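Per-record layout

source: Brevibacillus centrosporus
name: Transcriptional regulator, GntR family
length: 375
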Amino acid sequence: MSIIDFRSGVPDLTHFPRQIWGKMVQRACQEAPLSAFGYGRPEGRLELRQVVSRYLYRTRGVQCKPEQIIVTSGATQALTLIAKVLLGQGKSAVIEDPITQDIQTIFKATGAVLRPVSTDEYGLMTEQLPSREESAPSFVFLTPSNQFPLGGTLPIQRRLQLIRYARLTDCYIVEDDYDSEFRYDSAPISSLQGLAEERVIYIGSFSKILSPGLRLGYLVLPPDLVERYRDAKWYSDLHTPALDQLALAMFIEEGHLEKYISRVKKLYRKRRQALCGALEQTFLGTTDIRILGASAGLHIVAAFADIPFTPALLEKLQVAGVRVYPVEEHAICPGRHVDKIILGYGNLSEEKIVEGVKRLYSVLSVAGSLSGENL
């Protein structure tokens, strides 16, 4: 029996526009100037940075010039560069809790201290930010458009409070805008960066939109940080492959990216509906289930009252042919989210989603699982 894997953050790879992308790559190779075949600038090709600058202003309200953009080899490198430039022994970062375990690992590897702030259904709880009497953090890290993993969207009042805090403590804000294009019940939320470009470091990636295999992301930086990040990028890997950058620039400039997003959003909306509907119907009357973060992204969080997702229970689910991901793995302060699991749906068909929920139920319905007995 094959495993149905509810991994989050993976787009439907069967819908990757191979033919169009192939034509872009071919054209990039044929039309590229000679400079694209030599050592390039660490900040990336100007052609791509100009296109990304216009695209971000049009779709996300990001205020930046091409000179403020550093092209990276995916968002992971962007995060690593942030840690390299701004963190180290004796420094600290305020970070929302829970948040991706990989991000915690990248930041802690510098020797810096992480200062967690809880999240609720609206994202980072700004009233819990450290007092100004404490040592100022290097930055506050958050995912304001679609908090990972719980799915809150930071309201304007909290955004303004956060910007005021950053200015008073003289720290930066790191905005990870990892999948803001996929919002289903409303227009995309404008970026935090558009409210305070001098304070916000904005991270974006094309991995979760198009394909993780492309390894193309970017940083939008306050002007005073650009030179430091150019140097950090240079000593990291010199530059991101130039021909890939040129192909992506043409792909965006000719409208293919936005057409692709519009097309797959309809697909993901159906899959989201299939997942939420299957959970509600399958578990109807058996347990108190809450669905969080369904308005955006490529995953939801399902909270099951009184069911702790222990390693033993996760192993039983694996044996039953379904792989889910506990929110608790991403918690800095443990014990608050043991009843929640992350269910990604981007790369699963509706049939597999329904079958996966059935397998989930088959395990939770035995041994008293749904009545809250310990597993």
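summary: The chain has a mean pLDDT of 95. The chain is about 35% helix and 15% strand.
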